Amino acid sequence: MSMQPAEPQELAGPSAQPQILQSSSAADKCWICLEELHKNKREWLYPCKCSLICHEECLLHWVTESERHSRSGVVRCPQCNMPYKIVQWRSTTFNMLHTLYYVVDRAMPFFLATIGSMAVVVACTAYGAHAVMTVYGPSEGRRILGGAGKWEQARWAWLPMIPMTLILSRFQAGVAYMPLSTLLMAAPQPLRMEWPASPSLTLTALPTISFVYRYLWDMTLGRLERRWDSALPPEKQGMTIRLFGRRDVDQEDVAADAQNDVGQIDRPAIPQQQQHIHGLPDQPGGRNIDATIVLSGAWLCRTLVESLLLPVISSIFGAMIGRLPFFRRPGLSHFSRAMIGGCIYFVVKDIVRVLYKYLLYRTRSSRYIQGRKRF
Amino acid sequence: MLTALSTKRLMRELNQLIKNPPSSHVRLLSHETLDKWKIQIIGADETLYADEKYILQFKFPNDYPLESPEVVFVGDCVPVHPHIYSNGHICLSILYQQWSPALTAEAVCISILSMLSSCTQKKPPKRDAIYVKRTKTASPKKTSWRFDDDNV
């Protein structure tokens, strides 16, 4: 026997049959309030063939209470198990109303859930519309969105998908390949190779551009970044969410791993030994770190906010480059500028991050304590 | 607030327990208020729990005896038993779905004693740690119990 969350089960437990352990004197007491027979002048009831007797009033209380737990409406004597004969005025209207209230009560959570999810969809739609307006610019955006009165179904479908795609596309390389296709649907134009590129062409090419950029980054500045990263103590993580992986690979292990990485630079002999130990298959708490993704809360928040702010950031960067002479050409739409702006934002962000890491690394490695030194 | 019915009934049960305790293995320790009692039970002779002393805490709801009392083991030691979790929660059908007003606090104590007596192996329930972590000090009546072991 064990606990089981909400699962109707056949009841058969230890002493499942209620034991009636009262002494024989129970026979002359009300089995509900335990008052003795003949003590007060009240109406006594012999509801079944066994020795349990009670006040009618007490039994009616018990019947009402039992009704709350079982809908069958059958109440039995706890001793002889005989069903009590309950006589009451019956009315079809009452029965119908009773069922109606019961059904309404049961359906309420579903209604609430529906309304809740609709609220989310509406918020996402509003966000999507705002994103379209920001990225495409006011005039083009208004043309795409059309009049509020005559939205086709497709628009109701793709607008709320915009924020979700923006967020999802940040998470895994694979998902990133799911292009910003929802934004693409906003511009149902044929693909044509042209310059300045049309929105559909840009959005189709964007994942590829992003992939190539990541690859180039990893080959060049990314290497430097990783080297500085490994020389620094690991970032303090606040709240962490473990997506999958083993429970016993704890933060200590993560820290220890980072330590090993440091070790690889300073002391090449020791890490090798450790690698060896970790490599043993039967090592308890061994290397399952690969299967563990630790998301720090701060990282998650940063990514969420960044994804959702991306349209605004892109359009701000787009507006900024719009002031440069090269980008001021009339052929370049608001959308193209926003896209270029977004790309520039990512490049600038990456460069600033590497700069920060470099400066941090320089600061840390130049650190020493003033004082007299002796060998 | 206890109803008139529950007050009367609890007074009668309390009197009965003080005047004629059912056996030397069940002893009322305290009843600070009418709706919160502590009862000591002593393991029956020639069982695994012989002479071991445990304390049961009864909390009676306002519509007792229509609703079951909340019964848990309290104090430093909780019996190690396949149906008793280490936070004192007892898996016993008559305390939950199978409750009926025909039972009394005394009858519950005797049922628990008999549950201890029929135990053949002192071992904690399966997934005790998980259950205890999840429920902590919450009322056992909030747990949705499943009764599937007729043996112990």
Automatic annotation (TrEMBL), chain A:
Any Gene Ontology CC annotation: membrane
GO MF annotations, alphabetized: zinc ion binding
Domain of life: Eukaryota
Pfam families referenced in this protein's UniProt entry, alphabetically: RINGv
Membrane disposition: Multi-pass membrane protein
UniProt domain RING-type: residue ranges: 30-81
Alphabetical list of SUPFAM superfamilies matching this protein: RING/U-box (SSF57850)
Gene3D superfamilies found in the cross-reference section: Zinc/RING finger domain, C3HC4 (zinc finger)
This protein's name: RING-CH-type domain-containing protein
Species in which this protein is naturally found: Coemansia spiralis
TrEMBL record, chain B:
SMART domains in the cross-refs: UBCc
PROSITE patterns for this protein: UBC_2
Pfam families: UQ_con
All residue ranges annotated as the UBC core domain in the record: 5-152
The keyword 4Fe-4S is assigned to this record: no
Full protein name: UBC core domain-containing protein
The UniProt record lists the keyword Nucleotide-binding: no
Gene3D superfamilies attached to this UniProt entry: Ubiquitin Conjugating Enzyme
Keyword line: Ubl conjugation pathway
